[in-house]
């Protein structure tokens, strides 16, 4: 769901910072500490050829400790130098620098490197800059890794008294971080005038590095950056059972794999654990085989079985719509699907079906053997050679989620279907006029809508009362590891139209209803309309998009990493993630309806409306 959120804010504080300090016992108005940390070293400017690096167990543990601390500093140390530094490049170069440091000295080296940018990282609390109420300071106000669309990350400045009393800023003056069996401190409010100042890291100064994802240090800086965005900002850790801190180790280890395919598989496996259906990761992979072939049929899970739902015009096999796949290349189909779900980046509701749908695309024309059950119960064997991709597919057969290019369809007896997903705002007036003789309406929201104002306008004609949606929220982060969170609830309302259509209506939902689609369904339920269909995708809220090392340009994409950065719940407050919108009338597609090429969900909706008209 993008760019359409109207904010009316109600905030509440959830939890406090992992460690706090009492600033009232520091009464000087300058940034001079009771004890000043040792002076920092300067950033070098003469990079040397990259040395050979052996990523042994000890070094990998040191790297894990270092990047964990580095990303905490990146997002929470409040200085212009931190804000303006190139953190992926800094982390990549620092990894190589650590590899050239004696193992017993790496922890100190890590602190030394970070202090070049953020000098008030210290092992002693009394070396933090002193704060008085009128000390001018900077501090982060942030609900995302950086500002984007509806998200904000701003380095605020003002007196300590004024900033520390503002909503959404840190609750405490400093934070503590565990690092290499010691406790480190760094400020969350930093005086503008301090004895020590950091440098902005903008270019390589120690080692000449090739910014290729094939290089382990570049890969590590990338995946640890993705991990850190989730660690510090992703708002679903209270709803999804995952120990994300433990995922950093395999993510870093993946970067030492010589096989790009195996590397990507490990990375995808860790992120799939999040159950975030908005997740998208595209990484440079010269070994990846392009999908140049396809199977001349599509199968999906229907009533838990792998069923052919559509066939392509070039299909010459005996495989037909409604056939059930029993095995693929001798492997039972459920085992075949289950063995491939861990890298789908999809939630538990939809992982198996994603694998099924993706079977359409093949990297080679290697024949595939199928065992199938026909509608009469007989089993057949079919070997199919994938076809070469040439232009667009031409499939026949009703989609599992039936869709239409029309806006309005007459279903008989003055009952209409409005395909809400097709309605644009400028079409609302004509559409309403065409419904002048309607006695009841099916509102089809089984597909992602094209217009925010379009679906809102349609719903306003049919809701029984104003529909209020309080299911979205921003998480403002005051300290690392989400230890200091302020929740800002976002309230939206759809008012009943001034001239509503006072006729029965029911709303259709599908398993492909996702994000803004689910948002519309929540409004419908809030307004008193019933929803018929099956569990939806289970993710809503504005996405966050990121790039690393300009890989998106290399891949001709806008971004390489996408995740959900906004909390979205069900109407009743229960988790929406990995659950979907509540369904009032559960009517999944059936194998029988696929074989008969009938929209059983639409038929059930019409039956319901006729009962409302003739109680």
What features would you describe in this structure?
The chain is an alpha+beta fold. Helix content is 26%, strand content 22%. It folds into 4 domains: 31-36 and 47-209, no CATH class; 220-280, no CATH class; 293-388, Pdz3 Domain; 408-543 and 566-613, Alpha-Beta Complex (2-enoyl-CoA Hydratase, Chain A, domain 1). The chain is built from 16 helices and 30 strands. Strands 20-21-22-25-26-30 form a 6-stranded mixed beta sheet, sandwiched between helices. Strands 1-24-23-29 form a 4-stranded antiparallel beta sheet. Strands 14-13-16-17 form a 4-stranded antiparallel beta sheet. The protein is flat, with a radius of gyration of 28 Å. Keywords: Signal. Residues 1-25 form the signal peptide. Residues 20-52 are annotated as: Disordered. This is Peptidase S41.
Features:
615 residues; alpha+beta; Pdz3 Domain; 4 domains; six-stranded mixed sheet; four-stranded antiparallel sheet; 16 helices; flat; disordered N terminus; ClpP/crotonase-like_dom_sf
Layout of helices and strands:
Elements: E1 9-15, E2 48-49, H1 57-76, H2 80-84, H3 87-99, H4 106-115, E3 136-142, E4 153-159, H5 160-164, E5 174-179, E6 182-187, E7 190-191, E8 207-208, H6 216-233, H7 248-254, H8 260-272, E9 280-281, E10 293-294, E11 297-302, E12 305-312, E13 324-328, E14 331-332, H9 333-338, H10 351-358, E15 361-362, E16 368-373, E17 379-384, E18 387-388, E19 395-396, E20 408-410, E21 415-419, H11 428-434, E22 440-444, H12 452-462, E23 467-477, E24 485-494, E25 505-509, H13 516-526, E26 530-533, E27 543-546, H14 551-554, E28 561-564, E29 567-568, E30 585-586, H15 591-596, H16 600-613
Parallel strand pairs: 2-8, 21-22, 22-25, 25-26, 26-30
Antiparallel strand pairs: 1-24, 3-4, 3-7, 5-6, 9-28, 10-15, 10-18, 11-12, 12-19, 13-14, 13-16, 16-17, 20-21, 23-24, 23-29, 27-28
Helix pairs in contact: 1-3, 1-4, 1-6, 1-7, 3-6, 6-7, 12-13
């Amino acid at each position: 769901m993008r760019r359409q959120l109207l904010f009316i804010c109600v905030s509440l504080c959830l939890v406090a910072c992992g460690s706090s300090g009492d600033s009232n016992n520091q009464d000087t108005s300058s940034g001079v500490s009771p004890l000043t940390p040792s002076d920092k070293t300067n950033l070098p400017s003469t990079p040397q050829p990259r040395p050979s690096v052996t990523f042994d167990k000890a070094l990998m543990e040191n790297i894990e400790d270092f990047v964990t601390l580095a990303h905490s500093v990146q997002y929470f140390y409040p200085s212009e130098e931190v804000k303006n530094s190139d953190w992926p490049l800094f982390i990549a170069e620092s990894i190589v620098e650590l590899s050239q440091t004696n193992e017993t000295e790496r922890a100190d080296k890590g602190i030394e490197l970070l202090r070049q940018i953020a000098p008030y990282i210290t092992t002693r609390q009394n070396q933090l800059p002193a704060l008085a109420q009128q000390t001018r300071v900077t501090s982060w106000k942030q609900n995302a890794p950086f500002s984007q669309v509806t998200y904000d990350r701003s380095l605020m400045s003002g007196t300590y008294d004024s900033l520390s009393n503002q909503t959404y800023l840190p609750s405490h003056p400093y934070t503590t971080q565990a690092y290499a069996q010691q406790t480190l401190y760094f400020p969350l409010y930093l005086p503008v005038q301090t004895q020590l100042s950091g440098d902005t890291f903008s270019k390589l100064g120690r080692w000449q590095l090739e910014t290729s994802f094939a290089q382990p240090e570049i890969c590590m800086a990338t995946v640890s950056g993705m991990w850190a965005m989730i660690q510090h900002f992703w708002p679903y850790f209270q709803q999804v059972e995952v120990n994300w801190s433990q995922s950093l180790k395999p993510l870093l280890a993946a970067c030492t794999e010589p096989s790009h395919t195996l590397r990507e598989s490990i990375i995808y496996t860790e992120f799939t654990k999040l159950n975030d259906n908005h997740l998208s990761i595209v990484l440079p992979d010269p070994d990846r085989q392009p999908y140049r072939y396809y199977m001349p049929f599509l199968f999906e899970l229907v009533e838990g079985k792998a069923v052919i739902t559509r066939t392509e015009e070039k299909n010459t096999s005996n495989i037909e719509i409604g056939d059930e796949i029993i095995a693929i290349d001798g492997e039972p189909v459920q085992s075949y699907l289950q063995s491939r779900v861990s890298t789908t980046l999809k939630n538990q509701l939809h992982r198996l079906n994603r694998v099924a749908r993706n079977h359409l695309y093949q990297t080679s024309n290697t024949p595939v053997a199928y065992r199938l059950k026909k509608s009469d119960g007989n089993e057949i064997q079919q070997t199919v050679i994938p076809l070469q991709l040439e232009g667009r597919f031409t499939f026949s057969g009703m989609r599992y989620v039936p869709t239409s290019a029309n806006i309005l369809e007459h279903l008989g007896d003055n009952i209409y279907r409005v395909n809400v997903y097709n309605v644009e705002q400028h079409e609302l007036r004509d559409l309403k006029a065409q419904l002048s003789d309607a006695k009841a309406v099916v509102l089809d929201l089984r597909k992602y809508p094209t217009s925010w104002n379009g679906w809102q306008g349609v719903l306003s004609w049919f809701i029984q009362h104003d529909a209020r949606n309080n299911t979205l929220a921003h998480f403002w982060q005051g300290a690392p590891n989400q230890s200091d969170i302020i929740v800002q609830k976002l309230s939206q309302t759809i008012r009943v139209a001034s001239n509503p259509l006072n006729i029965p209506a029911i709303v259709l939902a599908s398993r492909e209803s996702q994000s803004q689609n689910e948002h519309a369904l929540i409004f419908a339920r809030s307004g008193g309309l019933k929803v018929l269909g099956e569990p939806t995708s289970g993710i809503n809220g504005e996405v966050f998009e990121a790039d690393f090392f300009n890989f998106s340009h290399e891949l001709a994409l806008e971004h390489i990493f996408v995740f959900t950065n906004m909390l979205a719940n069900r109407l009743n407050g229960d988790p929406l993630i990995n659950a979907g919108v509540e369904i009032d009338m559960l009517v999944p597609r059936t194998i029988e309806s696929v074989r008969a090429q009938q929209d059983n969900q639409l038929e059930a909706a019409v039956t319901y409306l006729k009962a409302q008209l003739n109680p």
